[in-house]
Every structure is written in C-alpha cells, then in structure tokens.
Amino acid sequence: MLLQGKKALILGLANNKSIAYGISSCFKEQGARLAFNYVGDAIKKRVEPLSEELGGEFTFQCDVTDDAQIAAAAELVKEKWGQVDVLVHSIAFANREDLSGRFLDTSRDGFKLALDISAYSLTGICRAFEPLLHDGSSIISMTYYGSTKVIPGYNVMGVAKAALEASVRYLAYELGEKGVRINAISAGPIKTLAASAVSGMKNIFAHVEEHSPLRRNVTTLDVGGVASFLASDLAHGVTGQVIYTDSGFSQMGI
Ligand code: NAD
Q1: Sheet containing 7-11: which strands, arranged edge to edge?
Q2: How many domains does the chain have?
Q3: Paired residues of 38 in beta bridges
C-alpha cells in the first residue's frame, strides 16, 4: 500500500460527491490514516458519518476565513497526531452572482471573498501547519483549467485559481528547503456542490465528453488516484507542479 500509516489531513469534505471524498476513499484504500475538517453545524452533520465510513480518526471545525480557527485546528492536530504527512486543501468559494454573467461586474467584496477562501487560505493553512510538516510531507491543492484559459461563467474563480497555482509555486520553493512538497491537481469538471454554482456547467460536461482525448469526464476517484501518487513517496521528486487530471482535454487545440 502506497500510504500505509501516513497521517492525512483532509480539508474540504462536504458530501460523498466532493472531490475530497474521492481522494479520501483512495487514501483509505492505500492505508492512510484520515482526519477531516468541517465548516459549521450543517456540514458537521454530513461530515461526521462520512468520516466514520472512511475510518476517520477525528473531525474538527475550521473555517479558513478565520485565522483563529486555523491556529486552533493546527494546535488540535498537533495534540492528536504530532505531525502531518499529507495535507489536502480542497476548498473554494465564490458568491453565486459572481459565477455567471460578466467578469467585469465582479464587486470588490465578491473578488476579495473568492480570493480569500479559494487562494489565500492555502498559504494561511501552510503557515499554520508548517511546524507539523517534515521532510517527506506532501501538500495537495485543487485547481481548474479556468486559471489559464477563459471558461465563460467561471469568472472570478478563474482569477482565484491563477493565484492559487502561483501560490503553489512560491510555497514549493520555500517549503522545499525543508523537504516538504506541494502540488496542485487540475481536475476536469466534476458534478459537485461547488461546481453546481458555476453557470453553464452542463454544457461543459457535454463538451469534454465529446472533445477530450479520453471522450469522458473524470471522476473523483480519477483525482484520488493522482492524489495518492502525489501523497506517496513515489512522487518524492515532484513539487511546484500543476498536474492535469482532465481526460487530456487541456491538450486539445481545437
Ligand atoms: P465541494 O463543494 O464538495 O467542496 C468544496 C469545499 O470547500 C466544501 O467542503 C466546503 O465546505 C469548503 N469550503 C468553502 N468555504 C470554506 C471555508 N470558508 N472554510 C473551509 N472550507 C470551506 O466541491 P468540490 O468540487 O469537491 O471542490 C473541491 C475543490 O476542487 C475546490 O477547490 C474546487 O475549486 C476544486 N475543483 C473542482 C472541480 C469540479 O468540477 N468540481 C474541478 C476542478 C477543481
């Protein structure tokens, strides 16, 4: 098993359609130990049974907009585990009105919120958990093709993902000194809660199915497979990368 005994912290499980669920299922199959965050009581009610199903060791509250909650989470994980071998950041948010219509109409507050939760949080989390990371730890974040190409409707989230990917490169440079790796997986579109907020998603699924080299959309387990590799010691020379897991769609010119 690739991840036998590795302590993997999963941030961003909302339900069994979440990319974090696919990643966690693969991690469990590879022998990882798991723990999950939630945001608020509504998500807690959904995360706790899923954590039980996946053999999670504990769950904890952590809203990434709140530095105090991030610090408390790091303290709790330190008490429970001492260190973290794998940290998955599978978190994004933008106001629904900023995921349709014109990017030009994005408000200052909507822009700040999307960039704060979807991009800055990765840096905030890495800083808080830095003392728990060690030579060989692996951090994985989730991104999308709308960071480099225009996907109408993706709008401010495309800008947030561009910032997230750049953050991965800077964090890779600084954390690499300690032997900590960080990469992003650029997943093709998957039907999740977060994806349902983006207008025109239905057309995107059909387009990928028709035009990608593999002629299908990816699943959360496809992403989980790549995440398992990146989390494992097999990937110990890989950092600062954006790894596409998109049926090859991003390689098509026309
Ligand atoms: P999801 O809705 O299942 O997961 C999003 C998670 O973000 C939820 O668990 C939610 O609780 C969490 N979150 C939102 N605001 C938060 C906050 N303030 N603090 C802490 N957590 C917060 O959807 P998903 O599609 O699994 O999204 C996971 C990641 O994958 C996101 O970064 C998303 O942009 C990325 N992604 C998704 C797709 C897709 O098509 N679904 C494609 C590429 C990348």
Answers
A1: 59-61, 33-38, 7-11, 86-89, 138-143, 181-187, 242-245
A2: 1
A3: 61
Catalytic residue check, 144: yes
For residue 254, being part of any structural domain is answered with no
pLDDT in tens, 225-251: 999 999 999 999 999 999 999 999 999
Tens-place pLDDT, residues 64-117: 999 999 999 999 999 999 999 999 999 999 999 999 999 999 999 999 999 999
pLDDT at res. 200: 84
Q: Could you tell which of 11, 13, 19 is best to mutate to test the pocket of ligand 1, judged by most ligand atoms within 8 Å of the CB?
A: 19
- State if residue 193 touches ligand 1 by the CB under 6 angstroms criterion: yes
Tell me if residue 21 is catalytic. Answer: no
Query: pTM for this one?
Result: 0.98
Residue 214 lies in a domain: yes
Q: The CATH number of the domain where 168 resides is what? A: 3.40.50.720
pLDDT for 199 equals 87
Q: What is the DSSP letter of 17?
A: T
Task: Give me the residues paired with residue 36 across strands.
Answer: 10, 59
Backbone φ, ψ for residue 129 (5° rounding): -90, -5
Whether residue 2 is contained in a domain is answered as no
Pocket-testing residue among 93, 203, 222, 245, ligand 1, by greatest number of atoms within 8 A of Cβ: 93
Q: Is residue 91 part of a domain?
A: yes
What atom of ligand 1 comes closest to residue 195's alpha carbon? 41
Cα 44 from Cα 59, distance rounded (Å): 8
Q: Structural domain of residue 74, as residue ranges?
A: 7-247
